[in-house]
Amino acid sequence: MTEAALTLDPNRRPAVMVDELHVVYRAYGSGKVARNTQGGLLSRTRRGVREVHALRGVSFVAYENESIGVIGSNGSGKSTLMRAITGLTPPESGAVYASARPNLLGVGAALIPNLSGERNIVLGGLAMGFSSKEIGEMRDDIVAFSELEEFIDLPMKTYSSGMQARLKFAIAAARHHEILIVDEALAVGDRRFRQRSEARIREIRDQAGTIFLVSHSMKSIRDTCERVLWLNKGVLMMDGPSDEVVSAYEESKR
Predict the structure, then answer these.
(1) What is the pLDDT of residue 188?
(2) What is the CA radius of gyration of the chain?
(3) Pairing state between β 93-98 and 14-28
(4) Helix, strand or coil for residue 141?
(5) Dihedral angle at the C-alpha atoms of 234, 102, 182, 150, nearest 10 degrees?
(6) Residue 252, Cα to own-chain centre: how many angstroms?
(7) 66 close to 205: Cβ distance less than 8 angstroms
(8) Closest alpha carbon to 18 in 54, 51, 56, 53
(9) Any idea which of 49-63, 205-219, 231-245 has the lowest mean pLDDT?
């Protein structure tokens, strides 16, 4: 671990440490992943192969009871960083350390379209480690939070994107998460649902959870997070109090 990059607060318990993290994607011009016959990635010198340096030496420490916003323009590395924290994207160099398994909630989270909302609640609960009894006990709360009482027996493929996102959030937020990553999940739904979702995120944080919220909505970031990471082309431009970082980011867009 790079001591110069990471300075720990001795009075707080770290939840996630990201140390000099680099992520590089290699692909053909067609967008397909480039591999050689041995199964390894082709070198950058091979004709037709492109390298995208998605994260460039990102370092920070996230603590318990923190809600951290992650902002930046499209292609800045926000989702790549979140996928690296969850272990879905391997680093080129550097490392990620976590005190518990991070859980990713995104609008692209898998649901099974041909199954009902009810069955997806069961499958989602089982995937998160709940017993059948526990799923049954929290079923009503999930349905009520998602506001899908009249539709819960219908196949997921009949739901609008907003209805699907509400159910995904309700399932994921039904349990306490030590580390929860919310990737654009609050960008859908009406104002009332966004407010309830933000309140639930604050509840998880107050129960000693650590929240990362990736969003293009600066209002959601300001309302939900006390700290913000600003990424630009894979570089961590700023890490600090929400108002200060968001103001600097908005100024840079003018």
Answers:
(1) 60
(2) 19
(3) antiparallel
(4) helix
(5) 150
(6) 24
(7) yes
(8) 56
(9) 205-219
Write the single-letter amino acid at 207: Q
Burial class of residue 171, CB neighbours in 10 A (0-12, 13-18, 19+)? buried
SS (H, E, C) the chain: CCCCCCCCCCCCCEEEEEEEEEEEEEEECCCCECECCCCCECCCCCCCEEEEEEEEEEEEEEECCCEEEEECCCCCCHHHHHHHHHCCCCCCEEEEEECCCCEEEECCCCCCCCCEHHHHHHHHHHHCCCCHHHHHHHHHHHHHHHCCCCCCCCEHHHCCHHHHHHHHHHHHCCCCCCEEEEECHHHCCCHHHHHHHHHHHHHHHHCCCEEEEECCCHHHHHHHCCEEEEEECCEEEEEEEHHHHHHHHHHHHC
The DSSP bridge partners found for residue 211 are 67, 180
Cα separation, 7 vs 152, in Å, equals 48
Average pLDDT over residues 174-197: 77
Residue 14 φ then ψ, to 5°? -65, 140
The two structure tokens encoding residue 15: 């939840």
- What is the pTM for the complete model shown? 0.78
A 10 A CB-CB count for 248 gives 14
Residues 14-51: b if buried by 16+ CB within 10 A, e if exposed = bbbbbbbbbbbebbeeeeeebeeeeeebbeeeeeebee
| Token pair of 97 as six digits | 């350390």
